């Protein structure tokens, strides 16, 4: 099942979850095929999101433009990495233009309306990880007030942050078991290798370089390669490190299931001030919603409902319209719970 914005909804989808209006009245039952008429009916009822069955989506375009730009950038990634590695300056610059399109799209989009669900699981790992780190860094950069050249540089630094891994043996990169001490030592060299690859080009600024070299530094000084602390770590690296960890744990790896967005988000929050710069974590909170409007959730007090409003400063504590009680297994007369004023209740699971 997958969530789709109503603006992207077209006829012939199969509704995956029944849709209720704000009074709890059933609008469309799960299993219904969408038509022009019932889509208009949902629009009139101010429905923003619906859940649809996945296989209906193969040919359907969701967030088409953004996905296209990202897909093009993704297709170009191996070429960019290889050109950079072989020192082919002219070709490298050419292929990097595609990456600039991605940033242009994010900049032109106006609001950071991407939600954490859109940075999701994929099989092909490394390049997607780089692209998503770059996209996320770009949104955070935007909320820090970055514009123009600086934003492009940040995005480029995010995109290239792990380029040094190209010099690490695949057995280490893909190893499912815990790395030995020696293997971990070699893996750590990827920040140094990355710096060496990139510093050959005068097109990259010092900021880009430091973003790559310092992205495994930790705010409390326990990271590598230099053990830098606090604001001695470049701002680019402090941003990239948050995005790197978030997108890494959100991805499906062969040896473990991915974290839910809320779990990944919790992990970042718990590292605020130790692994991560608290100001950057705060920006993450302001920039991304954890539970998009319309997502169905189970609360820790045993009731279920869906997100009807966001609390901007606390994206993990939205307003929920409760419609179901798991204890009685019965729909209940709907009511709203604002998690901002009910601190003893948390979202337990996205359902
Ligand atoms: Fe890395």
UniProtKB/TrEMBL annotation:
UniProt GO MF annotations: hydrolase activity
Key words of the record: Hydrolase
Domain HD-GYP: start-end pairs: 104-300
Keyword Hydrolase: yes
Pfam families found in the cross-reference section: HD_5
EC number: 3.1.4.-
Keyword Transmembrane: no
Protein name: HD-GYP domain-containing protein
């Amino acid at each position: 099942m997958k969530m789709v914005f109503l603006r992207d909804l077209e006829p012939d989808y199969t509704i995956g979850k029944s849709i209720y209006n704000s009074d709890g009245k059933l609008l469309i039952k799960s299993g219904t095929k969408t038509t022009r008429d019932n889509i208009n009916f949902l629009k009139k009822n101010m429905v923003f999101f619906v859940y649809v069955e996945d296989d209906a989506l193969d040919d359907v375009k969701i967030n088409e433009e953004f996905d296209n730009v990202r897909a093009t950038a993704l297709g170009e990634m191996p070429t960019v990495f290889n050109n950079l590695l072989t020192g082919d300056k002219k070709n490298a610059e050419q292929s990097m233009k595609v990456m600039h399109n991605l940033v242009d799209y994010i900049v032109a989009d106006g609001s950071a309306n991407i939600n954490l669900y859109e940075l999701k699981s994929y099989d092909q790992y490394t390049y997607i990880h780089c692209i998503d780190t770059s996209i996320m860094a770009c949104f955070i950069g935007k909320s820090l007030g970055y514009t123009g050249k600086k934003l492009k540089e940040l995005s480029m630094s995010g995109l290239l942050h792990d380029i040094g891994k190209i010099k690490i043996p695949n057995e280490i990169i893909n190893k499912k078991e815990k790395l030995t001490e020696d293997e971990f030592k070699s893996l750590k060299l990827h920040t140094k290798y990355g710096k060496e690859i990139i510093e050959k080009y005068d097109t990259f600024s010092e900021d880009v370089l430091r973003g790559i070299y310092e992205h495994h530094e930790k705010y409390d000084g326990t990271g590598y390669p230099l053990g830098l602390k606090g604001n001695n770590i470049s701002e680019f690296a402090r941003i990239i490190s948050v995005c790197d960890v978030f997108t890494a744990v959100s991805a499906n790896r062969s040896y473990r299931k991915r974290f839910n967005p809320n779990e990944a988000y919790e992990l970042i929050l718990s590292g605020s001030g130790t692994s991560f710069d608290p100001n950057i974590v705060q920006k993450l909170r302001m920039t991304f919603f954890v539970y998009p409007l319309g997502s169905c959730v189970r609360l820790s007090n045993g009731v279920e409902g869906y997100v009807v409003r966001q609390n901007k400063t606390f994206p993990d504590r939205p307003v929920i319209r409760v419609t179901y009680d798991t204890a009685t297994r019965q729909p209940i007369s709907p009511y709203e719970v604002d998690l901002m004023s009910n601190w003893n209740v948390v979202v337990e699971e996205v359902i």
